[in-house]
Design goal:
Pfam families: NMO. Keywords: Flavoprotein, FMN, Oxidoreductase. By secondary structure, this protein is of the alpha/beta class. Helices cover 43% and strands 16% of the residues. It has 13 helices and ten strands. It has a seven-stranded parallel beta sheet. A three-stranded antiparallel beta sheet has the order 6-10-9. Strand 7, helix 8 and strand 8 form a beta-alpha-beta unit. Helix 6 packs parallel to helix 7 and helix 8 packs across helix 13. The longest helix is centred in the C-terminal third of the chain and has 21 residues. The N and C termini lie far apart (42 Å).
Length: 319
């Protein structure tokens, strides 16, 4: 959600009874502090009080920023977010250790989330790194993840079986409705993560042009490939990782065999003209299940009510 989340979206989600994360991306420390101050102001929280939100960090970006003259992680930890989320790095454990060391100095507990794409990854994150929450991400997820990750409904049983006494596991990937949330809870997860569903909100940073593309998307509208990162000039992902995005002309250029040089030229020319056919639009399979743009608070309410409705309907089967 690095290119889609805003302080307003985080506030709307957390303020509606869910838990909002902000994708840190390449934001500077000053920009991230401004984001958290906006959240504090809107939620009427004074400095020194933990903020009910999380920040998401990408491993390979941290490799660049934490050795620069503007390291981000310690700055954000000083601002007391309740949670930190790590994903997509070859050595995320060192950042988990950094959070623990930082917390120990100020007698504070930051909840650490880490994305995994296999049971092996989950065991390592739980047993070696001591993370607090495992995020099992299926290949239906939008944005980036494991290129060979199984679908969520196959990944989850494997992860849960590998961690019978481990930390809580939450599910991510392709989820857009309350009924889906209910089904995942029935599988045994402690919670469910949604990203793409919140692209369809007023508070999302995506432009109206991009949102119109998402509204028109169906369940076959996305593909996983590094071709989107290649034209976006962000192809720094660890091995066996790629990204899911709207399969527009970027995908067509790639599958037709055009060279990278040709694809970059077409992409840049199209974007310079303000066209929508070669925009990089990260989105999951679940994009095809949503057809309206609405306030984030309404989305949280809709998901909550849909989940309860599905749970009650399923409970009736036991009668």
């Amino acid at each position: 959600m690095a290119f889609a989340s805003t302080a307003e979206l985080t506030v709307a989600v957390s303020g509606s009874g869910a838990f909002g994360f902000f994708g840190a991306g390449f934001d500077t420390s000053a920009q991230l502090k401004e984001t958290i101050q906006t959240v504090r102001t809107k939620l009427n929280l004074p400095k020194g009080v933990p903020v009910p939100m999380g920040f998401g960090f990408i491993g390979w970006i941290l490799e660049m920023t934490e050795s620069s003259d503007d390291p981000r992680l310690a700055t954000i930890l000083d601002e007391l977010p309740v949670a930190i989320w790590f994903a997509f790095g070859v050595d995320l454990g060192k950042y988990v250790a950094q959070v623990r060391a930082h917390d120990a100095k100020r007698d504070h507990k930051t909840v650490v989330f880490v994305i995994v794409n296999s049971a092996t990854d989950a065991v390592r994150a739980a047993n070696e790194w001591g993370v607090d929450v495992i995020v099992a991400q299926g290949n239906e997820a939008g944005g980036h993840g494991g290129s060979i990750s199984p679908p969520l409904f196959d990944l989850l049983p494997d992860v849960l079986a590998a961690l019978p006494n481990g930390p809580p596991v939450v599910a991510a990937g392709g989820v857009a409705t309350g009924a889906q949330v209910a089904s995942l809870l029935a599988l045994g997860v402690s919670g469910v993560v949604l990203g793409t569903r919140f692209l369809f909100t007023n508070e999302c940073r995506y432009t109206d042009q991009i949102k119109s593309v998402l509204v028109d998307a169906d369940l076959r509208a996305t593909q996983r490939s590094l071709c989107f990162d290649e034209v976006n000039r962000t192809n720094y992902w660890p091995p066996l990782h790629d990204g899911r995005a709207i399969a527009n002309q970027i995908w067509d250029d790639f599958t037709s065999g055009l060279s990278l040089e040709e694809r970059l030229k077409k992409h840049d020319e199209s974007n310079a003209k303000g066209e929508k056919d070669r925009l990089v639009i990260w989105a999951g399979v679940g994009a095809g299940l949503t057809k309206t743009i609405s306030p984030a608070a309404d989305v949280v309410k809709e998901l909550h009510e849909g989940t309860l409705k599905a749970i009650k309907a399923t409970s009736a089967l036991l009668g």
